[in-house]
């Protein structure tokens, strides 16, 4: 029979042995691990080629997936075979795909990854067989399987098909569907242009039982545009010259995307010449350089100009069209008071109704019509007010006078011949008839 002292020593030895075996894990942590493993064991990733690891997830106090503390900090321990092992502290280790350390934009330079770097990660699950915590890099595009996907996550996939209803997207061998309204922030007529493209999208709905995954590219684009819009508004200023993309063309002008902010390029600001159809100047998708004419942050409006970046033809109009010169032009508009004639790119002159013809004109349409080619003389020019007075009547009068002079010059004048002209008869003197001698009565 053992003494009380010996019994106390034996109990202390057993307690020490249990403590050494548990490696400092509390009973509560151990029970929590057992409960978690029983739930997640069936869904754990099985990989026979990977050796079983001895990391103890409970040692680091790993949070549940649905808890409010999913963010963990860890240090890169090993990089191999497309995976990165992360030291989470204590004896806990996690694994995250190497792909999540690479930039999602292929044009962006890749930052080399090295052992010892520290990052923030999101808890994505636990692999009970290998004793590894499944992680996703915070801020990285999620590349995980069904167990790692959650609504709201941004994932990366490849468009494999298109139809009227939307797009089929392959995300890490998982088939997802993107409705037509979630493809872009603007209307897209042909989805086939996206087939084969790698895109970012946000998970909108997950049905693991039915294996249905609904994603949205529009949601990601809206987030990107919101960030870009805020930056653009802080930079915009009157007089700036900026590059933009024509987002739409309307009868009154075109909208240009300057980077999350759309500005209006009015038809009157497109060219120095009169523009009837804005679609002949710019087209949707064109990259153009424009000048910022006005910024109204309160109303969120931006006015743009294109002709302001072009040479103003009125600067040399006085030299190109001096007073008295005869010019050829096209009638652009017929009004009650006269007709406008374009005599050069961006330069129009007015032919008043009184100068349309050398006869009286009731209405200018009696003499000219739109798009007709005419010839006129420059009467006056005002470059500051951008006005030129023209006359068609003066050309007609000058032409008529020249024709009459030519006709007179061409008419022959007969020479003077005195012999051929009969002499005028001299006036005859009046014949005097003598009065008869008066007989006297009773004459002798």
Outline the structure in words.
The strands form four sheets. This protein has a five-stranded mixed β-barrel with strand order 1-2-3-5-4. A five-stranded antiparallel beta sheet has the order 8-7-6-9-10. The longest helix has 19 residues, at 4-22. Strand 9 (198-207) and strand 10 (212-216) form a beta hairpin. It has 444 residues and is of the alpha+beta class. The chain is built from five helices and 20 strands. It has four domains: 14-137, Nucleic acid-binding proteins (OB fold (Dihydrolipoamide Acetyltransferase, E2P)); 154-221, Beta Barrel (OB fold (Dihydrolipoamide Acetyltransferase, E2P)); 236-309, OB fold (Dihydrolipoamide Acetyltransferase, E2P), CATH 2.40.50; 313-399, Nucleic acid-binding proteins (OB fold (Dihydrolipoamide Acetyltransferase, E2P), Beta Barrel).
Beta strand %: 25-35%
Strand order of the largest sheet: 1-2-3-5-4
How many β-strands, per DSSP?
A: 20
Structure annotation, total helices:
5
Determine Rg (CA atoms, Å): 49 Å
Give the CA-based shape: rod-shaped
Which structural class matches the secondary elements?
Answer: alpha+beta
Taken together, the total number of domains comes to 4
CATH architecture of the largest domain: Beta Barrel
CATH superfamily label of the largest domain: Nucleic acid-binding proteins
The portion of residues assigned to helices is 10-25%
Report low-confidence residues grouped into runs of 5 or more.
1-8, 30-69
């Amino acid at each position: 029979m053992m003494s009380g002292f010996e019994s106390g020593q034996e109990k202390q030895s057993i307690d020490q042995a249990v403590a050494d075996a548990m490696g400092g894990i509390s009973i509560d942590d151990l029970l929590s691990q057992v409960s978690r493993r029983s739930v997640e064991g069936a869904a754990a990733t099985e990989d026979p080629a990977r050796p079983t690891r001895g990391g103890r997830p409970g040692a680091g106090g790993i949070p549940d997936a649905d808890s409010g503390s999913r963010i963990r900090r860890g240090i890169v321990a090993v990089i191999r075979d497309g995976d990165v092992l992360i030291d989470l502290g204590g004896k806990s280790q996690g694994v995250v795909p190497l792909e999540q350390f690479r930039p999602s934009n292929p044009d962006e330079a890749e930052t080399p990854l090295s052992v010892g770097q520290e990052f923030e990660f999101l808890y994505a699950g636990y692999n009970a067989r290998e004793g590894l915590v499944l992680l996703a890099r915070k801020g990285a595009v999620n590349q995980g399987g069904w167990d790692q996907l959650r609504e709201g996550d941004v994932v990366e996939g490849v468009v494999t098909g298109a139809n009227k209803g939307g797009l089929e997207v392959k995300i890490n061998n998982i088939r997802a569907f993107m409705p037509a309204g979630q493809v872009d922030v603007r209307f897209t007529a042909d989805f086939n242009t996206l087939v084969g493209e790698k895109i970012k999208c946000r998970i909108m709905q997950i049905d693991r039982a039915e294996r249905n995954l609904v994603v949205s590219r529009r949601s990601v684009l809206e987030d990107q545009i919101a960030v870009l819009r805020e930056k653009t508004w802080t930079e915009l200023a009157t007089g700036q010259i900026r590059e933009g993309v024509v987002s739409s063309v309307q009868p009154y002008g075109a909208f240009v995307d300057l980077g999350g902010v759309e500005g209006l390029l009015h038809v009157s600001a497109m060219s120095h010449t009169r523009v009837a159809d804005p679609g002949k100047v710019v087209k949707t998708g064109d990259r153009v350089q424009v000048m910022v004419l006005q910024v109204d942050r309160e109303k969120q409006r931006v006015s743009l100009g294109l002709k302001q970046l072009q040479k103003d033809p009125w600067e040399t109009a006085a030299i190109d069209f001096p007073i008295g010169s005869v010019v050829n032009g096209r009638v652009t508009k017929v009004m009650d008071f006269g007709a406008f004639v374009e005599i050069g790119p961006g330069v129009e002159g007015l032919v008043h109704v009184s100068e349309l013809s050398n006869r009286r004109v009731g209405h200018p349409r009696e003499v000219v019509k739109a798009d007709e080619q005419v010839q006129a003389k420059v009467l006056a020019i005002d470059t500051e007010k951008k006005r030129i007075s023209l006359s068609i009547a003066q050309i007609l009068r000058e032409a008529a006078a020249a024709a009459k002079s030519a006709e007179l010059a061409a008419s022959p004048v007969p020479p003077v011949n005195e012999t051929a002209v009969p002499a005028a008869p001299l006036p005859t003197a009046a014949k005097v008839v003598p009065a008869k001698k008066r007989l006297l009565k009773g004459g002798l």
